[in-house]
Design brief:
- The chain has 490 residues and is of the alpha/beta class.
- It is built from 15 helices and 22 strands.
- Helix 8 (239-248) links the parallel strand 10 (230-236) and strand 11 (255-259).
- It starts with 13 loop residues before the first strand and ends with a strand.
- The structure holds succinic acid.
Length: 490
């Protein structure tokens, strides 16, 4: 049972034009606890009609919001930021209950998400263009930054607060208005966040949020893709869905930011500090039970340090406490749903059949607490022929690949259509620059496993998408560049 100190945070209706409303069809869908698969809430199941109403509201609100002085937009964002932190414990409990993230990590997610709101509140007041040196006398050339218009934000379940915060905050800072749809597995955190935005004083229509079941989601998203008033789509999720959004938004040539799947390599060279590398892998691989786009999916360890590294890693992984996310000592909670845990089991079984050896884990656990727990796992003797080498496992599984030379490991690390994040550990300064430049990813952790930060540009290359979130680049993605040329001044 989810008990909150501020029960009004638990919303079940859409927020459209400042009003909390049922879906047009009065339909609802069930929100389930990922541990037990039991329903604990029901929320609005919206369709294309609701999606269009949200755009109507955002389009009407846009002119006034975009003209509002940047400092006023920043103040509203700062108020929202303060309210998010004031409700940190309640928000963390909602995240844990609907997503299965261990409570301690969920508290961290609230701070992480809030940091984007604060960052973009500050950046809002620093938006500036250029005055360009004129080539012809009597002319002035100016470059302005303008908000793109209505933004559709479509967010994933694995960071129910941070992902929507880091899309909505820069949009509002830039002067855009928003229609948003959270993942069907985790709508409650997003609804609570929208309620807090309203409490912070966001004008009606500036933030609109609709929820929809897996079955009705295509109707909502396709309505936004077809609507020429929506000028940008920002999405975090799978590469196939990202490609669909890119194809379908082409008819109205919307601006797109796509943060898609990854298949991150994590490389431990023979000159690495092994303890630091184990710490880094624990932080990046087992965060959120391995359910992050940036978590290492393939761990390459140099032959000379392989056995020592595996021994230290296996000790740490074997000691991780698996349990219901709302228990204080849980480090690995349940996976999000049956499909997720089935995929993990399939990847491990396939790897074992193809010659991998389980050092620790390798099985489902805690069945008395629910069907979706999987033991944190270390596998050795992984090879490129295994499914887990080509596809994101999205679970607490670290497959170790042995390598012998730098050129070989770079080739293998880059041998994937994806290019989101990569990590490596080395103490050789020349190698550090060589490898960092050779890795085909948008982000590289060098002797560091936790790389995301509000001040840094988050995003990928290749089929991991384009666009950046966080940093000043993240704000730029919500603006277009307008050039003014004034003549007859001489
Ligand atoms: C993601 O998994 O998509 C986001 C992870 C992060 O922000 O670090």
């Amino acid at each position: 049972m989810l008990k909150l100190s501020e029960p009004t945070l638990l919303r079940s209706q859409n927020l459209i034009d400042g009003q909390w409303r049922d879906a047009g069809l009065a339909a609802r869908f069930a929100v389930t606890d990922p541990a037990t698969a039991e329903t604990f809430a029901n929320v609005a199941d919206s369709d294309a009609g609701d999606a269009r109403l949200a755009v109507d509201a955002a389009a009407v609100a846009f002119p006034a919001w975009s003209r509002r002085p940047a400092r006023e937009r920043a103040q509203l964002l700062k108020r929202w930021h303060a309210l998010i932190l004031d409700h940190q414990e309640d928000l963390a409990r909602i995240i844990s209950t609907e997503q299965g993230k261990p409570l301690k990590e969920a508290r961290g997610e609230v701070q992480y998400g809030a940091s984007y709101v604060e960052w973009f509140a500050e950046e809002a007041t620093r938006i500036c263009g250029d005055i360009v040196a004129e080539a012809v006398p009597g002319r002035k050339l100016l470059v302005l930054k303008e908000p793109v218009g209505v933004v559709a934000a479509i967010t994933p379940w694995n960071f129910p607060l941070a992902m929507i915060a880091r899309k909505i905050a820069p949009a509002l800072a830039a002067g855009c208005t928003v229609v948003a749809k959270p993942a069907e597995d985790t709508p409650l955190t997003a609804l609570a966040l929208a309620w807090l935005a309203q409490q912070a004083g966001m004008p009606a229509g500036v933030v609109n949020l609709v929820t929809a079941s897996r079955e009705r989601t295509p109707g909502v998203v396709d309505a936004w893709l077809a609507d020429s008033r929506v000028r940008k789509v920002t999405f975090t999720g799978s590469t196939p869905v990202g490609k669909h959004l890119a194809r379908e938004s082409a008819a109205t040539l919307k601006k797109l930011s796509l943060e898609l799947g990854g298949n991150a390599p994590f490389i431990v060279f023979d000159d690495a500090d092994l303890d630091a590398a184990v710490d880094g892998l624990m932080a990046s691989k087992f965060r959120n039970g391995g359910q992050t786009c940036v978590c290492p999916n393939r761990v390459y360890v140099h032959d000379a340090v392989h056995d020592a590294f595996v021994e230290r890693l296996a000790q740490r992984v074997g000691a991780l406490h698996v349990g219901p996310a709302t228990e204080d000592d849980a480090q690995i909670g349940p996976m999000i749903n049956a499909r997720a845990v089935d995929k993990i089991a399939r990847h491990v079984d396939d790897a074992v059949v193809r010659g991998a050896r389980v050092v620790t884990g390798g099985k489902r656990v805690r069945s008395a607490d629910g069907p979706h727990y999987y033991a944190p796992t270390v596998l050795v003797d992984a090879t490129p022929a295994m499914e887990l080498s080509c596809e994101e496992t999205f679970g607490p599984v670290a497959p170790i690949f042995r390598f012998r030379d730098e050129a070989e490991v770079i080739r293998d690390a880059n041998d994937t259509p994806f290019g989101l994040a990569a990590y490596f550990y080395s103490n050789d300064i020349r190698r550090i620059w060589r490898v960092a430049q050779a890795l085909e990813t948008g982000m590289v952790g060098i002797n560091e496993g936790a790389i995301a930060a509000e001040a840094a540009p988050f995003g990928g290359v290749k089929e991991s998408g384009y666009g950046r979130e966080g940093s000043r680049h993240g704000l730029d993605d919500y603006m277009h560049t307008k050039y003014l040329c004034q003549g007859q001044l001489g």
